[in-house]
């Protein structure tokens, strides 16, 4: 299907093991339905390097982020930031992250998470690059750290937003961008998000699959083994259109233009 407006998936975990057997086909299937380019999420130095190397094979079709997820903060070392800095110098790397705070799992000690989140905020500021953010059950500390570094970073997106109305309004007031996933397609867990999405300014809204995770529950045909992939992104756009009373075309054009502007594509 050739769509008039290509859609940009701002968050794909394309280096995840579930894509090992058919990674190229996943990219091709997405492009065939107008989902292009894709931005591959880096979550550690190693995965960021793999993402950058893979994206380099598809100029203009794949991009990557470079960062350390709070789960992996415990494995950071003195040369982590320098390694991210080197990765970020490559033209296909368009953002610092995924970084932030996660107090839900606490896979890394909270003080360690905060230290390396701060280091990555500073790196994004130094390189004049946008931030790709993760926050879970850590809203107060997350906001406090971003405010502490206010003015340092030009642009930041809260990826996979699933929070409360108060959290959303705080982020919007701070000038942050919001990434919406297939969570909004879940009539149980995503119910509040279906109402909240109306409060996101259209020029700050971006869409993402977070594949292979968060497969939209209301897909007409369920994928084999439940694996999500970028070709389902338009389904998220359609759900947002339905929730906001806007046309699908309006959501497609706005989210694509916002993503291009945000990542400098």
UniProtKB/TrEMBL annotation:
Keywords linked to the UniProt accession: Exonuclease, Hydrolase, Metal-binding, Nuclease
Keyword set includes Translocase: no
SUPFAM superfamilies: Metallo-dependent hydrolases (SSF51556)
Ubl conjugation in keyword set: no
Gene3D superfamilies assigned: Metal-dependent hydrolases (3.20.20.140)
Bilayer-spanning residue ranges: none
Annotated GO MF terms: exonuclease activity
Name the UniProt record assigns to this protein: YchF/TatD family DNA exonuclease
UniProt organism field: Paenibacillus ottowii
């Amino acid at each position: 299907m050739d769509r008039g407006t290509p859609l940009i998936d701002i968050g794909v975990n394309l280096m995840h093991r579930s894509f090992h057997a058919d990674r190229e086909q996943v990219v091709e299937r997405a492009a065939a339905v107008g989902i292009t380019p894709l931005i591959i999420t880096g979550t550690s130095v190693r995965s960021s390097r793999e993402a950058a190397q893979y994206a380099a094979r598809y100029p203009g079709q794949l991009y990557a982020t470079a960062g350390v997820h709070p789960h992996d903060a415990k494995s950071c070392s003195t040369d982590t930031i320098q390694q991210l800095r080197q990765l970020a110098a490559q033209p296909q790397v368009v953002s610092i992250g995924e970084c932030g705070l996660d107090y839900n799992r606490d896979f890394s000690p909270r003080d360690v998470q905060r230290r390396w989140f701060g280091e990555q905020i500073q790196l994004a500021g130094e390189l004049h690059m946008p931030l790709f953010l993760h926050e879970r059950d850590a809203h107060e500390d997350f906001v406090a750290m971003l405010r502490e570094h206010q003015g340092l970073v030009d642009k930041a997106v809260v990826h996979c937003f699933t929070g409360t109305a108060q959290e959303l309004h705080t982020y919007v007031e701070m000038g942050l961008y919001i990434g919406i996933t297939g969570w909004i397609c879940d009539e149980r867990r995503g119910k509040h998000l279906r109402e909240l999405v109306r409060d996101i300014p259209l020029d700050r809204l971006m869409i993402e699959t977070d594949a292979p995770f968060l497969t939209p529950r209301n897909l007409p045909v369920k994928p084999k083994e439940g694996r999500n992939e970028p070709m389902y992104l338009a389904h998220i756009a359609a759900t947002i259109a339905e929730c906001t009373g806007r046309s699908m075309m309006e959501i497609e054009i706005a989210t694509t233009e916002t993503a291009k502007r945000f990542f400098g594509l």
